[in-house]
Write a structure and sequence with these properties.
By secondary structure, the protein is α+β, with helices and mostly antiparallel strands. The protein has helices spanning 15-23, 25-32, 84-89, 126-150, and strands spanning 4-11, 34-36, 45-50, 59-68, 72-78, 96-106, 109-117. The chain is built from four helices and seven strands.
Length: 151
């Protein structure tokens, strides 16, 4: 699928613990490296700023679109792909992608699948850059949540 990035990680922890790390805004911030201003609330915006080294002055903005307990957490966010020039410009990005976290119980833990979709709305050449950047970002973030929850 050229419109999506999909990452799957098996985590040696119960679904409830992974769910808590995803949906508690302070725990999410710890592993995602973002300082969030408020808890996640269905249908509301989430704001804050990145704490990832080199990106500390960048704003976080997302819209919460699904909180389905122990199963699915989803939000939309601007398709910037971590592009510093774009993020520093202050110009809002019109295209937003959908990020979905889906949890499946396993015998010895939880399977987490992260899907980011909607890249077909982003014009080239930015689409390729955003997908490449976010693909690498999600590879790192699924390891971050695994390490956070298992640690």
């Amino acid at each position: 699928m050229t419109d999506s990035i999909i990452k799957t990680m098996d985590i040696a922890a119960p679904v409830a613990k992974v769910w808590d790390a995803l949906t508690d805004h302070e725990k999410f911030g710890a592993w995602f490296r973002v300082a969030l201003d408020q808890p996640f609330v269905m249908g509301q915006s989430s704001t804050g700023h990145m704490t990832y080294p080199g990106y500390e002055h960048y704003r976080w903005e997302a819209r919460i679109v699904a909180i389905e307990p122990m199963t699915r957490f989803a939000y939309e966010w601007p398709a910037t792909g971590g592009d510093k020039a774009l993020m520093e410009s202050g110009v809002p990005v019109p295209e937003w992608t959908l990020v979905e976290f889906v949890l499946e119980p396993l015998e010895n833990g939880t399977r987490l699948t992260v899907t980011e979709s909607g890249f077909d709305k982003v014009p080239e050449p930015r689409r390729s850059n955003v997908m490449r950047s976010n693909d690498g970002g999600w590879a790192e973030q699924v390891k971050n949540i695994r390490d956070y929850v298992e640690g």
